[in-house]
Write a structure and sequence with these properties.
The chain has 6 helices and 8 strands. By secondary structure, it is an alpha/beta fold.
Length: about 180
């Protein structure tokens, strides 16, 4: 997994596989576009395994799971929020509480349609913390479906740092290489 600095905060990333071949792309597209429970369960078990085996201290009560909410248009188009579904399943497996920390503005571009620079700007302007978001001194595990440019993760990490999160982890089924 990658460990690097975002917003001056050390962030650790772990992913099941690279999003770079035909089969990995097909799996992620199926996961994002169809409410395929078998694939959701598979990804949730694999991500939970990463959390249970690679993230120290997760049982001490100072850890929470969070996710980037899907756009309203994405929810309408596909009928579900894949990052929420994945996070909820991972929470059930690991016992780590799922906390809705972020809101998404109603209007904003879908990241997939934007260039890298546009993604960074869009993500920074579209996500914001919920009023009850309390992560001071906690470790937050962000669950995302795929890390493409890192723009969404970067925007969420900035918010978490401003809220006083002690540690930040990113876990996802795939990362673009």
């Amino acid at each position: 997994g990658d460990v690097y600095k975002r917003q001056g905060q050390k962030v650790s990333e772990r992913h099941i596989f690279g999003f770079d071949s035909g089969i990995s792309k097909k799996l992620i597209y199926t996961f994002k576009r169809s409410n395929n429970r078998a694939l959701q369960n598979f990804f949730a078990r694999e991500c939970a395994d990463i959390i249970e085996n690679e993230i120290d201290g997760k049982k001490d009560g100072d850890y929470v799971l969070a996710y980037p909410p899907r756009s309203v248009s994405g929810k309408k188009k596909y009928g579900f929020d894949q990052a929420y579904v994945l996070s909820k399943k991972i929470s059930g497996i690991t016992g780590i509480p799922l906390v809705k920390l972020f809101k998404r503005k109603l209007f904003g571009e879908e990241q997939k349609n934007l260039s890298l620079n546009e993604r960074v700007e869009n993500a920074a302007s579209v996500f914001y913390p919920r009023k009850n978001a309390d992560v001071k001194g906690k470790a937050v595990i962000i669950i995302d479906d795929v890390v493409t440019s890192g723009s969404t993760v970067g925007a969420l990490c900035k918010i978490l740092c401003e809220l006083g999160a002690e540690k930040i982890y990113v876990v996802s089924p795939a990362k673009v290489r």
